[in-house]
């Protein structure tokens, strides 16, 4: 049985835009300075920790189909939009299948930068 929001997504195709999918937000280094940073999966993207960027797990990244797409992330009444620029490639980047790795700027916009070393619950939607 699919969870909330997952009925809108089917492997290999888009039925409709994902709306209010539950996820866990983790911090991700997009500056290229962190340990083990690789080039981003979405070609032609340049990102920094000061921009609004996210990395998605494989099931949501779907072979680059979400590259350069914008998603809306919500938490506690705050909303931010961010560009999908990469795929999570390890458990440290996205510790569970419903994790999104987000830049420090995304955390700041959601007013949760003080919890940057924790994982927090959010919802996300395609824009």
What does this structure look like?
8% of the residues lie in helices and 33% in strands. By secondary structure, it is mainly beta. A hairpin with a 2-residue loop joins β1 and β2. The longest helix is centred in the last third of the chain and has 6 residues, at 104-109.
Helical fraction equals under 10%
Measure the end-to-end span: 25 Å
Question: In what range is the share of β-strand residues?
Answer: 25-35%
SS element count, helices: 2
The string of secondary-structure elements, in order, is EEEEHEEEHE
Please state the structural category: mainly beta
- Computed over alpha carbons, the radius of gyration is 13 Å
What is the overall shape? Answer: globular
In short:
This protein is mainly β and 127 residues long. It has two helices and eight strands.
Secondary structure topology:
Elements: E1 9-10, E2 13-14, E3 21-27, E4 53-56, H1 58-61, E5 70-75, E6 78-87, E7 99-102, H2 104-109, E8 120-126
Parallel strand pairs: 3-7, 4-6
Antiparallel strand pairs: 1-2, 3-8, 4-7, 5-6, 5-8
Features:
disordered N terminus; six-stranded mixed barrel; mainly beta; 127 residues
